[in-house]
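Subject: complex prediction, re-run

Hi both,

The earlier run crashed halfway through, so I resubmitted it with identical inputs.
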Amino acid sequence: MRLSGKVAIVTGGAKGIGRAIAERYLAEGASVMIADIDAAAGEKAVEDLAEVGTVAFTATDVSDAAAVARLVAACEERFSRIDILVNNAGIVHKADFLELDEADFDRVLRVNLKGAFLCGQAVARHMVESVKRGGTPGTIVNMSSVNAVFALPDQVGYSVSKGGVNQLTKTMALSLAPFGIRVNAIGPGSIMTDLLAAVASDKGAEARILSRTPLGRIGDPSEIASVATFLASDDASYVTGQTIYADGGRLGLNYTVPV
Ligand code: NAD
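This time it finished cleanly. Structure:
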């Protein structure tokens, strides 16, 4: 019960990695507000996870500042505090650089990077006010990717957005350190979710992924949830501004292969 009594917002928590994080946080004693653009999946997640702990859902587009303000207000109203934010919501778009549409580039950047900024700023303001009133400092976890480090030529917006998330993590960590608020990121490798299936659906995709994954298997969302638990817990009390890669060893390889 490493998160006992804490209140966490998990964006993109209806499915995949976010849902695994929500489930693990509940099992560790936190109350969780799932925020997701997919209302049906969000309600279903709440239904499924209700037996694990106290969980609620707010339909939210993280790239919409007004929706993010409503999310923070809803969490305050329901749980009276916010201790942890996981900026996990993310999308991918596959197209080569020369063919990539401006609208698709914007869309990916808006959700993956601007969404993390909007949620991060809104929740951080709330956390800072709490610290000023004598409260315990909160902590923020951003979801990056190995693609922050190695670029995929057919995932331009995605790679750029995740590079941005790493730098956003450092700037947030520096701004919020005076208040004791820690900000870190996780860089997953290939994890079995709908998002991975969307970019690696062709025959041979699995073999290509495994060829560049030293541990020789695709990761499970629970293996990212455990890192998110560590970063949000007091076990990481002296860790801030870092991106921790949970990638089956991929960044140890000095080459890239398109997905
Ligand atoms: P997923 O598609 O399974 O889940 C993403 C969730 O985000 C969905 O529930 C979706 O509805 C939600 N979402 C999408 N747009 C949103 C928006 N505008 N506002 C709120 N919610 C929104 O994907 P996943 O694989 O679980 O990815 C989660 C995070 O992990 C993403 O940031 C992704 O980039 C990152 N990541 C995933 C992998 C992987 O291999 N799966 C690897 C590296 C990084």
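The pocket of nicotinamide-adenine-dinucleotide is lined by residues 11-12, 14-18, 36-38, 41, 60-63, 88-91, 111, 115, 143, 145, 188, 190-191, 193-196 (CB under 6 Å).

- K.
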